[in-house]
Amino acid sequence: MKTEVNLCGIKMKNPVTVASGTFGYGREYDEYIDLNKLGGIITKGTSLKLRPGNKPPRICEVPGGMLNSIGLQNPGVEYFAEKDLPWLRKFDTKIIVNACGSTIEEYVELCKILNTLDIDGVELNLSCPNVKAGCLAFGTSYEGVKEVTSQVRKVLTDKPLIVKLTPNVTDITAPAKGAEDAGADGVSGINTLLGMKIDIDKRRPVLANNTGGYSGPGIRAVGVRAVYQMAQAVNIPVLGMGGIMNGDDAIEYMLAGATAVSIGAGNFVDPETSIKTIEGIENYMKKHNIDDINSIIGTVQMN
Amino acid sequence: MGVKVNCELVKKEVVAEGIYKFTVKAPAIASKAKAGQFLEIKVSKTGAPFLRRPISIYNICKEEGLVEFIFQVKGEGTKLLAEENVGAEIDIMGPLGNGSFDISDYKKVAIIGGGIGTYPLHELAKELNEKSDVTVYMGFRNKDLVTLEDEFAKVSNRLVITTDDGSYKEKGFAINFLKEDCKKEKPDMIYACGPLPMLKAVREFALEENIPCQVSLEERMGCGIGACLGCAIKIISGEEPRFGHVCKDGPVFNAKDVEI
Prior knowledge:
Shape of chain B: globular
Strand content of chain B: 35-45%
CATH superfamily of the largest domain in chain B: Nucleotide-binding domain of ferredoxin-NADP reductase (FNR) module
Number of helices of chain A: 10
Oligomer: heterodimer
CATH architecture of the largest domain in chain B: 3-Layer(aba) Sandwich
Strand order of the largest sheet of chain A: 3-4-7-8-9-10-15-16
Distance between the termini of chain A: 30 Å
Number of strands of chain B: 15
Order of helices and strands of chain A: EEEHEEEHEHEHHEHEEEEEHEHEHH
CATH architecture of chain A: Alpha-Beta Barrel
């Protein structure tokens, strides 16, 4: 039974990765699961310099999942390269760095550094809904995505480049094509959906930032649809995510066109969600006599 | 370092209306747990509500491998948990938190709690009571909400119970009784857990009087282990303020290090 997949040059032992921002730099989950079993780890969104993050409350629960407004708190790329990367490299899994910035210049400077590090790929974050500048500001249009991606592509010459996209758009195929036309090797999505929860007694939003990104099983149907549309629109691989809680959910994404998947908020509910997803995929393959997981990618038959 | 285990619910008690004490068989957690740490408890088998519920540890019995926690039914999640019966398996991660209470050889300590914030202080009082002179101050809104008086009496040298409306024992806020006692003799350490206004007042008083003080805090939590960075708290001990996290850096902090 073959579970290996090749996500735009990143050869993974299985299609299951953990999503950016839900897994830190891996240390916290090392206590609960064997990181060697993962296809890949996508790091916490990392910027050129330290980012303090947003004020609390940063998190609240909503039907079908949660809202978060962390605001990309991270120690900066130098700290990551020095403290976390050597530790992460001890594990037999692919390391993809989620890269975020406030300006095109910042993305470029960051990716110059990432190009020199011992990592397997970069996920360019053009879709975080919780920061004032950058990210989503570039990510909603064909032109915006194409501009940032092409500038980054010039300096990120030695690593696969995946562009992470937002569902908070009219047509997700437009930014996806922008990424492809600018030379990206893959696209990923969906990032969180912009949401808001109001405390009706206080008549104020629960989150200090007022709005936050919605994740969890409630967004899965949106993610599957978006991944299907992206896979139809571009000729580069898609990394699919949004509300995956088990192997069946992962298979759904792969049938829609995802070459690999990410577990996000599911990690919070159960640290073993990623491992159980890998097992669930294998069980599906046994049940349906599938020898090679690649044979199901994008094979959904539309009505 | 925490573990994730399915624990058998061996005893379920009603402490007061809507407040439950669960005793679970969890040797792997009990053997490592320290006063002030907490558990992340999966309350739903269907996935709704979505997140685990962080609940602090009330009592640890290392020899028997038992852990006790007390919670109030506040919403859907705690309601589901309260419906579990003896014999049920509960999915628990713990013990969590790197910041636990400082159990040193103090001569005299003061422990102050308000409402349901008194529960995380029980294990602390129990452990301190073996070597220190422990005074526990517990504040409640009214007589009906006073809980676990006997239990706290057993683990303290002196127990002061206050109600805001004077319907039981002393009338007024617990902190005023602490302040009054401090005029006679200052404790070597103050430990506090409870509503934010109480914690703010205790922190301010301790800083003014130069008495070491530890506070147990809460904030809306996601993962409970320091990965999601949700439960941010402003740390002011370094050169520049930064956001730490209640689950990983706490839930117990030195009062002078945090902004409440």
